[in-house]
Amino acid sequence: MKLWNYIVGYLVIKVDGLSLEKFINLTISNGIFLWGIKRSGYTTMTACISISGFKKLKGIARKVRCRVRIVDKRGLPFLLVRLRHRKMLLVGLTAFLIILYVLSSFIWIVDVEGNVKVPEDKLLNALAKYGIRPGAFKKGLDISAIENRLVIDMPDIWWVSIQLKGTRAIVKVVEAAQPPPMVDKDTPCNIVASKDGIIHEMVVLEGQPMVKEGDTVKKGQLLVSGVVEDPETLATRFVHAMAQITARTWYEGEAVCSLDEGLTRRTGRKVVHKFIDMGRWVVEYQKGDIPFKYYEVEEKKVPFFGEGRFFPVTMIVREYYEVEKLSASASLQDLKEIAQKKAMEDVNKKIPSNAKIVDKRVKYDMIEGKEIKATVYVEVLENIAQEQKITVE
Amino acid sequence: MRKRKLNEVKTAVSEMFELPKDIMLNLPRISMIGNNQMLVENHRGVIEYTPQKIRLNSTIGVIRVEGQDMDLKNIAAEDIMITGVIKLVEF
Questions:
Q1: Tens digit of pLDDT for each residue in A330-358?
Q2: With 0-12 CB in 10 A as exposed, 13-18 as middle and 19+ as buried, what is B22?
Q3: Does this model's pTM top 0.80?
Q4: Which of B45, B49, B73 lies at the smallest CB-CB distance from A35?
Q5: CA A181, CA A52: separation in Å to the nearest integer?
Q6: Nearest alpha-carbon partner for B67 in B89, B85, B49
Q7: In terms of CATH architecture, what is B26-90?
């Protein structure tokens, strides 16, 4: 109802008179619709009325001796009348709509999802060859044909789906699964230890186990033999030994922290500066003074349209963190923590990714009262089985 | 006398057939939402309107509504909608 009133247009009128109730009753009985009636004083009130209703109002107003004035004209028809004198605005509006429509019929962003091994560049190039690239016209693209062609062209892709959502082309890819490497069962081989350790668990699939769980083994020691002797016939057989041998192994990492270097700690206060980098121009749109004596700076770059996309617009966020300097004695505990963290980073580099950490110990040493050395011992469970070919004489 | 008898018959009929009484007996139908909206259907005109006090005519007599900042949101031949803080409704 409200929307309809807006479309056909309505008037806000002010009625002055002594018998306002009579005025209301008379308008109703004449079939004129009134709404939003507000009495602002003893003799005045405002109300809303349709344009056609207002034309019939004159006789009524005379009858009850009220004065009716128009306060405001609202609605689309009045807006259009006002717009008639501003032709360029209308031209601009239509131009805007046309440009919006034209621009929305192009592809501006190509997103590739699901690729792990196949590089994105290669996929984007292949897509561009068939017309899916930023700036391409959307109409006339035969999506299903392109999907089929891509699958035929790229043998390491099994399935492609291309979706056009607005100005974005979403390309979903399923890569071809590589078959697992074949185990060459014909070459006989042993399993030896790749590291020193204590054996935690043994799963022998093929071969003669030479050690048992709980044994300490050295690097290179024979764990599972590929030479199997039948206990009854005493015949020797060469097999390709296969086993999974989990052992406890140890890693060690160390780091040194000097007491002299002033230790700092972030206080939690920060100031953020933001820039918009448009290649040639850099616009600062948020900048303030840095009220800190000591601070650290962190810079982050957030591209607006994704990395290396159509428009080279990047937002640079620079965060200034306030820090306070700590005295050497107060910071001993902090120094230990930092040294330990560094040592852990050091040891984490050495531990293979599939190992499971079981235990961790840290030792601190003072070196000549100037430095703190943290040593971290980490105990992990990892597979130490390593194949070694048997050379048969 | 005759009118009263007619009304009695109408009441009996509407009770018997479970018909809505507002239509049969030409009564005003009043519905309120909380204390800030009141719709009176089948009224007979506005007697008095100020933001604090509204009096409406109806077939059962004058309906008096008191409150604060009351507006007549909609007025048509049959129904009237009052918005504002309604404090009192009296018949």
A1: 567 777 787 888 888 888 888 887 888 88
A2: middle
A3: no
A4: B73
A5: 86
A6: B85
A7: Sandwich (2.60)
